[in-house]
Write a structure and sequence with these properties.
The complex is a heterodimer of chains A (426) and B (228).
Chain A: H1 2-5, H2 7-38, H3 47-57, H4 61-68, H5 72-87, H6 99-109, E1 122-126, H7 128-131, H8 147-154, H9 159-162, E2 163-167, E3 170-171, E4 179-180, H10 191-197, H11 204-214, H12 244-262, E5 268-274, E6 277-282, H13 302-305, H14 333-338, H15 357-366, H16 369-383, H17 390-406, H18 411-420
Antiparallel strand pairs in A: 1-2, 3-4, 5-6
Helix pairs in contact in A: 2-3, 2-4, 3-4, 4-18, 5-6, 5-16, 11-12, 16-17, 16-18
Chain B: H1 6-28, H2 69-79, H3 88-97, H4 112-133, H5 157-172, H6 178-195, H7 201-220
Helix pairs in contact in B: 1-6, 1-7, 2-4, 3-4, 4-7, 5-6, 5-7, 6-7
Classes of the chains: A mainly alpha (426), B mainly alpha (228).
Chain lengths: 426, 228
């Protein structure tokens, strides 16, 4: 009836209704994006949402996301929890702020080439100038306990404002001056990472979790029984239960890759000193006493070769921190899924050219194609909080990984790209 | 048999009421509270949801995700304008409750201890909010028209109405619905009848603070405040 009698009124009404719904949809989208990128709720009438809504209405979703990633909660809540899951064995968010999570936060904030967090010679800590004169004095020791980062988290300081890049990783000693880490590798050699994976054990967990967290692949998905067993240690029985076939068809699959890479960590250990104290140890640091790992004549941590637990005398004995990549066997599933590439030039001239140790291992991982897709996956989980149908899973992360690379591995931009992705929000 | 104090009975009643409402709106009848269309007033209240009008803030669309313990605490601080003002008592409460709060975004993590812990933590945050807004010279955002030096009867009901609408917009990120408004209005009436005239004059004045503290804690720990 309205159309017949007053068509212009009806059209105007429809236009008005359409604009109102569009504006409301944009507002809801902006609010959703803000809440997901900051991890907290926001008042509906927040001016921030209004600014983001205008960007959404203009079709500039990444511009809208930039407002959200400028908030402290983006770092102190979302990035922190994403990193927290990667820093512990339990993959839990219930972990205090630590050197691992702070370094990830700092690298995201500074829009650093994110590959560097796996091999760079730096960490992030509180800028002493920002806490000068605090009462009680702000704990500054970051090598022997987590008090520094705990104090930051429990203070009213803004994490994104007080963290500062500290060049040159250190190893603690009993003496007054700490020693330069001979083999620095970003968060891989952080106290939190070592405390989670290098404590006790045989340093295999360090390899397993590096692949789990930075390649997003559990050990059973990269097991390869057709690969070499050259570097499998003496502590692995070659005929478990008297059955050599069992070794060849099961044990070997995981150990070939894991033990191949394990040599990179041959000089490292972690010592728990009780009451939350503990330190990263390196055999070549020159530290003494409690800060020196148990090691053999070659300077290799005793737990690598386990002389008191020899199951197969012909097994590999590590004499240095060299490693082999047995996951790049031509034609293998692993070669395809990891997408190994020659590492780009090392920004740290003093460490350039290394082919052994964790620094070299970290560079290898960070330059693989899989690493980029994996970072996209972590960001996706942190922001979208929903899984994709398996048919779309790999393609989405590969595509986001490529976009990550084309943005010079800028994680902050990746968060914006993921939050703007049409499949992130159903 | 363990006796439950009046205060806790009151908090539990409100929490369970809000929990039931949240469950109803989320799981069973999402269209009942469809925010994009104007709705008539409920039979229990004369409040009319502003949705459909320019000042409406619609309920975000699913899928939702739970806030983790740290996210929930950070969120409570953010929506009450207390970022950077965390007190030792808030931290102590968070430390005591975080174990029962979610460690993931999984909705299956919702359980009774989680809801109780959320209410307890929200109580601490709301207590600090009231203290902050009743400080001399403070600019009020939530309790703008409330006179905490008077008893409940001495304050206009409109002050309560304004407060819960402000809290909904801030805590839930959307406008309050007619149904939610009617539940909170019923709570106001019950509270005023039960506690408003109880005890001496000083106790009656303290009841005003208790009314707003309990309403704030319930809203700040309800389902829509714990998801994004």
């Amino acid at each position: 009836m309205l159309f017949v009698v007053r068509p212009h009124v009806a059209i105007l009404g429809l236009l008005f209704f359409s604009c109102a719904v569009h504006a409301q949809t944009a507002q809801v989208k902006a609010q959703w994006m803000l809440e997901r990128l900051t991890g907290v709720k926001w008042p509906a009438d927040s001016p921030l949402i209004a600014e983001m809504t205008a960007k959404v209405e203009a079709g500039d979703l990444k511009g809208a996301a930039a407002f959200a990633t400028a908030q402290d909660q983006f770092y102190s809540v979302v990035v922190k929890e994403m990193a927290a899951k990667m820093s512990t064995r339990e993959e839990s968010v219930r972990v205090e702020l630590n050197d691992f999570t702070s370094t990830v936060i700092g690298a995201v904030r500074d829009e650093m080439d994110f590959r560097q967090v796996l091999f760079g010679n730096f960490s992030y800590a509180v800028d002493p100038a920002k806490v000068a004169g605090m009462d009680p004095a702000f704990p500054m020791d970051v090598l022997r306990n987590n008090n520094h980062y705990r104090a930051l988290e429990r203070s009213n300081l803004k994490v994104s404002e007080v963290l500062i890049k500290v060049d040159g990783q250190k190893i603690p000693t009993a003496a007054a001056a700490d020693i330069a880490n001979p083999d620095p590798a970003g968060i891989l050699t952080s106290r939190a990472s070592r405390g989670a994976h290098a404590i006790a054990g045989t340093n295999r967990r360090l390899v397993e979790y590096t692949f789990r967290q930075f390649m997003c692949v559990p050990i059973e998905k990269w097991a390869d029984t057709a690969s070499f067993e050259t570097r499998i240690g003496r502590d692995i029985d070659r005929a478990p239960g008297g059955d050599p076939v069992r070794f060849q068809t099961t044990c070997k699959g995981c150990h070939t890759g894991m033990d191949g890479f394990r040599g990179a960590f041959a000089k490292y250990d972690y010592r728990d000193m009780g009451n939350g104290a503990g330190a990263v140890l390196h055999a070549d640091s020159g530290a003494t006493g409690n800060y020196q790992p148990d090691r053999d004549g070659n300077g290799v941590a005793t737990k690598l070769n386990r002389p008191n637990f020899i199951q197969y005398a012909g097994g590999w004995v590590s004499t240095n921190d060299s490693f082999e990549n047995y996951t790049n066997r031509p034609g293998s599933v692993n070669a395809t899924q990891f997408g190994w590439r020659a590492p780009a030039s090392d920004p740290d001239a003093g460490l350039a050219g290394r082919t052994t140790g964790v620094h070299a291992f970290g560079r290898l991982i960070a330059n693989s194609a899989r690493f980029s897709g994996c970072m996209a996956q972590h960001v996706w989980n942190a922001v979208c909080k929903r899984s994709l149908p398996s048919a779309e899973l790999d393609m989405t992360f590969v595509s986001l990984g490529l976009e990550f690379e084309s943005n010079q591995y800028n994680m902050k931009k990746l968060f914006g790209i993921v939050a703007s992705h049409p499949k992130c929000k159903m | 048999m363990m006796k439950i104090s009046k205060k806790w009975r009151m908090i539990l009643t409100l929490t369970l009421g809000m929990g039931a409402l949240s469950t109803l709106t989320f799981n069973c009848a999402p269209r009942l509270f469809e925010p994009l269309h104007p709705r008539g007033s409920s039979s229990l209240s004369s409040y009319r949801s502003p949705c459909g009008l320019p000042d409406c803030f619609a309920k975000p669309e699913s899928p939702y995700a739970m806030l983790t313990s740290f996210q929930a605490f950070s969120s409570m601080l953010n929506v009450t304008d207390q970022v950077g003002q965390v007190s030792a008592s808030m931290l102590a409460e968070y430390d005591a409750r975080k174990g029962a709060l979610p460690d993931s975004d999984n909705m299956a993590a919702i359980n009774a201890p989680m809801q109780m812990s959320g209410t307890s933590l929200a109580g601490e945050v709301c207590g600090a909010l009231i203290a902050k807004e009743t400080t001399a010279g403070a600019v009020r955002k939530f309790f703008t028209d409330v006179d905490f030096t008077r008893n409940i009867a001495g304050n206009p009901a409109a002050a309560y109405d304004k407060t819960i609408q402000t809290m909904a917009r801030n805590f839930w990120g959307r406008s309050i619905s007619s149904e939610e408004h009617s539940i909170l209005s019923s709570y106001y009436a019950d509270f005023a009848a039960s506690y408003g005239a109880q005890g001496n004059a000083a106790e009656q004045v303290r009841a005003t603070r208790k009314l707003y503290l309990s309403a704030c804690a319930a809203m700040l720990s309800s389902f829509d405040a714990m998801i994004n």
